[in-house]
Transmembrane protein
Amino acid sequence: MFSKRKPKKSPEQYHQDYLKRLHRRKKRSVETKPASRQQSAAEKDIIPARHFVKTGLLSVQNILFVILSFAIPLSLYLATSPQTVTGYADSASLITHAYHLDIAHPPGYPIFVLIGHLFSKIPIGTIAFRLSIMSSLFASLTSLLLYKLFQKLKLSPAVSLLSSLFISFTYSVWLYAITPEVFVLNNFLAVLLLYLTLKFKEHQDSGTKGSNIYLYLIAFVSGLGFANHMTIVLVVLPVFYFIYKGMSFPRRRESIQTLLEFTLCFIFGLSPYLFVIISSHGNNYPHYGNIPGLTRFIQYITRYDYGGLLSGGVKTVSNPNENYFGMFLHYLKLAINGLTIFSLPGIFYFIYKKVTRSGSIEQIIAVITILGGFVFPLFSLAGLVESDLHSQGVAERFGLLGFLFLGIAFVLGTSNLAEKFEKSEKKTILKIGLLLLISVTVYSNYKKIDKSRFQITKNYALNILNSLDDGDVVFTSDDITASALYYLSEVEKVKNIRLVSSGFLGNESYQKELKDYWTDLITTGSSYEFDVARNIIENTNKNGNSAYFVMFDDPYPFGFLGNPYYLIPQGLLLKADLNTNLSDVTKNSQEDHWENYDFTDIDKNYSDAYAKLLKNYYFHKAEVNATLYLSYGCQPCAETELKNVSASLPGSKFNKDVLNSLDTQTSLPNSARGLLDLAKSRFSAQSTPTQNDFHRTAWDLQRAYAMSPRDKEIIGGLAEIYEMLGIYPLAIKYYKETKALDPNGGWNEPLKRVETESKKFKLFDYL
């Protein structure tokens, strides 16, 4: 009826009972042992009471430090998190995809979308803030895992805690801990893989059962990593090699069975890609090409549209005066500024001492530090334009895994360097050094990173949306604009607009998405992107709506000469209107479209590349407008445009030198032969024509063809240009026309070549 369990004893009671038992043993052996020996044995066996008390305190301390390693970063992350979209990378777009539970841009990021959808249901703040909580949570869990990892690697609890906090508050790690992006989740999975590998090694070395559980978890988490971001390969490959070298099986059958189970767990980790396949057959908002068929699916998950798995997909060096490795050097500056210059000895010492230490977890970390901290950034960032702010943003986020492992190497290397000191001195030096670093890092980064009142991206998007009506079409040419407009229109429902990516208009899969989602948008049979754009503008105008461009590059192919419409500058927008003339364009320049924009906080000094880029958008957009006015032959219009933006935009000032530096071309040839000669000169003037040069030439030759439809040189030029652009149906059409006009001109060979290439593409589409 009543429990007979004895009450728990205090450490002092355990000690007293132990002394009594020891005394009884001593009394029984007193007659057979010399007194001196009895005394030494008793002294040797006595364990002080403080041992039991200390063990309990260490346990409590460890639990407290685990909590602190998670709670301290989380509290600062949430305090600095943005309440709305920031425009960093693809964050606004990813938030919207997660909210609607549809596939994101290549490679789909299914893990982020699925987990993000759950966080979007939290009844706290805006949808954007809820996804920021998700990033902050995974960044804080990464800090906790770092604490556990450092402890396993023989660092004291206090040093482990301080080390994890220091890495968590470095600039780039903190910045993306509050940004809804895939890179923080990537860091979490990377550290989780390291921790599981360490647990697997412990079980292997001790010979205890259960090591296979960690082996299968490693495989599963690796698969999840690939379903999140492909840079996890920099961690997975060293971990898999380490496991392969360390595994031993007494029987071949056991080896095959384990390998099969390991592979199945890895494939199961990849299973979120089933969501991509299933979701792609739904009625998703048009983005980056639907993925029916094996070939398109492979292109999609390997980021074919962006240049490959690990490519940043941004502007590359074309000017010989630019440094090909400039962006890699910029990345190294970011790393050194984040970890401080004092980190370098520790990083290189750790790599030097541990990279050849076979069979240790430190060797894996050293190899990953080399791959993620140096080799991968050199490969993926080399060739990007250092001065380009968008490319700088790519370095910030693509380098995040490298920043993490450089931080880990710094901590472990510095700890190894401190081995030459006495144990107590070593602990004191490390603790004081890390405390100073954390204090300086938090103090210097808090104001730089704090986005709790950050509004310039939302204001920028609202400045555009407030000029639009429901049903209007907006062609975008950059990620920040497209993502911010997508979020505000599809999540916050500010305006019901149609977004079209001008950069992907040449993708036939994307064209198909546009046709399926908005059946009245495209009616042309041509797949050439500028024919498609003109057709969209015509159909939109006919339906009573307006079409606009938000262009940050030369708008020439979409512009005035030869098109059935004019591009009319209206602040951040270029309006494409079929029912206007040059006189209307001139009158439009007299209206100030900038004065009613919200420029709140635009004059603040921001440290991160994307905020700087957004600040530059306004004046750069005015320069595009001025260039367009100059192409219409209205220099006063261009000058007025620049003066208006300077009067409204804080911190800007009109400078006539800017106007003089713009393209002052006001007319193009009016004859077919003149346009043909212009096309030829464009290619002879430079050895490496840009993609835009091809499009310019195609449009000029189209206008020449309209003037002289039987000129075989013009038609042959069109065929060659469209072949180079990969527009094979048009290339075949014009090669056939040229062959009909000039049967003996040697046109059979290029015609056969293009027809063969066209059939290959049809086969790929079928697959």
